[in-house]
Amino acid sequence: MSTPILKVRDLEVEYATPNGPAKAVGGVSFDLEQGEFLAIVGESGCGKSTLLFAIAQLLTYPASMVGGTINFDGVDLTALNEEELRKYRWRDISVVMQSAMNALNPTLTISAQLADACRAHTDWSDEKILERSREVLSMVSMDHVHLKSYPFQLSGGMRQRAMIAMALLLNPRLVIMDEPTSALDVVAQRSLMSQIQSLREELGFSVLFVTHDMNVVSHFSDRLAVMYAGQIVEIGKTRKVFDEPLHPYSVGLMDAFPSLVGAPRQLLGIPGNPPSLVATSPGCHFAARCPSVMEICRTNRPELVDEDGHSVRCYLVNSVQI
Amino acid sequence: MKKVILEVEDLSRYFRVGGLRAKGLLHATDQVSFTVKQGEIVALVGESGSGKSTIARVLAGIYEPSEGEIIFEGSSISKNSDKAVRGRMPMVFQDPFSSINPVFRISHGLERSLKLHRKGLSKEARKALAIELVEKVGLTPGADVLRRYPHELSGGQRQRLGFAQALASQPSLILADEPVSMLDVSIRIGLLNVMKDLRDREGVSILYITHDLASARYTADRMIVLYAGQIVEEGLSEEVVASPKHPYTRLLMSTAPDPRLPYVEIENPGDLGEPPRVIDPEPGCRFAPRCPLVMDKCRTSNPTMVQVSPTNRAACFAITS
Q1: How far is residue B137's CA from residue B126's CA, in Å, rounded to a whole number?
Q2: Which fold has domain B4-90+171-275?
Q3: In a domain, A286, yes or no
Q4: Mutation to test the B interface, candidates A189, A190, A253, most B Cβ within 10 Å
Q5: What is the pLDDT of residues A134-185, one digit of tens each?
Q6: pTM score, two decimals?
Q7: Do the bridges between strand A206-211 and strand A174-178 make them parallel or antiparallel, or are there none, so unpaired?
Q8: Is ipTM > 0.90 here?
Q9: In a domain, A52, yes or no
């Protein structure tokens, strides 16, 4: 086992709100190996996108990091200033945003936008930039005629491919993806996921992938982290989390997806809504919606306990603590 | 045999595209025919651009049909039909955040709908009925919910309210255009259950428009699969999912993200293709360029719907030959 490329420890992010600080990310820790695909799933408002933004050091007011460290390849990113961060951005860490429609500049061709990123981060010649642009487009199965296309001339799937091509320009070691497939149709979604998978095998970058739809990553990610109310409630090998989810929230999430296989059956989902992050209770965040809530859950907050690389934050599973 | 309440015959809707003098016609839906029976949920399934929302909008009277006929509860309807007919077939929209007026209390919209469509009710009766309606879709306690403002409700609650408002006009058919696609996954299933409840308890039919095959299977009795504006396969949901006949339905099945399905390796991920924009189409099957089973005649003539079982039909030459 290689050393982790990314080590996140006790990361905390708060949003300033009129009612006091809202803790969007409350103490998240995980490691990411070189070449590993880690998927983070959760509902809207669970802090998954905020977590990504914090790791990429892209938080802006009203969000701010209030604790924790982000160690990328031995360097604490939180200790760097903007100028020093620039050396890491795009070269080592690149980001693919959720909506390519908004992330691409509608008034520039794809080639101009690829060249823009190259000029900002390298001293390549124009020929070299063009050559590399063609190369990254062919990596994502796009014809290089699209170098001359404007974003509006491309379909949704193609735009997302162009975004991924742009992220791969400088051969980064970590690619951060914020729901890149959520605006796509199923066929385009599947085709993009397969593409990401084969590129990762070929180039060996690590992927941190955030999504609200855990089905999308079910066949692709190595590990899966389930987030609820700003905390990781379960993290482990993807197959294991799908086959034997341990946290009641993960169990509920699995039960919220209708399937195409098996006998038709009534599903219940998870009643209730995620809690407010401003005035949190001392107990488990999920206690109010949990079907197997106990006395202790309302007064004490469980810790994330690891067993054979599968960690769960729940008193039901970690009964030793009681 | 249940009574047919909606009959759509050869419905087409074209849009002129490409600037002022352009002659291009975008065939958003082309020669679509289907029926909805009383107390039945029918799902229209397709990718974006398949024409599923256009069909709903034509039915709701937002667009006029270019060709074809819509027979609802025994009589032909058009855009100018009387309001009472519209009330019998209300629509629930996709975005629960922009479809409710934020400056009024929840009771406002609901009672207005009752005022318009249920004339002759006293003020007290309207209030009582409003409470009953929101409780029918699982928003309890009703009196308390009605006093709130839209911003106090979550997305799932707002979408439930959408169904309550639809119910206010005593509909026989609700058009639900992607009602759950903007909701969180743990909330979605609750709303799908509301739709099934309304069918079972109120006997109302629902035309459920979705891109998600699995939720269509869960909710709908029958499903209609659309591709590029045309129906490619229709029939009982269970049968479509258990033995899809059209190559497009099979493609949808094999790419559906489902952890319970085995992983199917895709040879050429860049080559799955995307649905075409159908502008002034030539004859030929519209799926032909992407079809693994394509034959010569697929490129020159249109396949027609053929019966593949007592209940299901599909439009593909590969099935008949």
Answers
A1: 17
A2: Rossmann fold (3.40.50)
A3: no
A4: A190
A5: 999 998 888 889 999 999 888 888 888 899 999 999 999 999 999 888 778 8
A6: 0.88
A7: parallel
A8: no
A9: yes
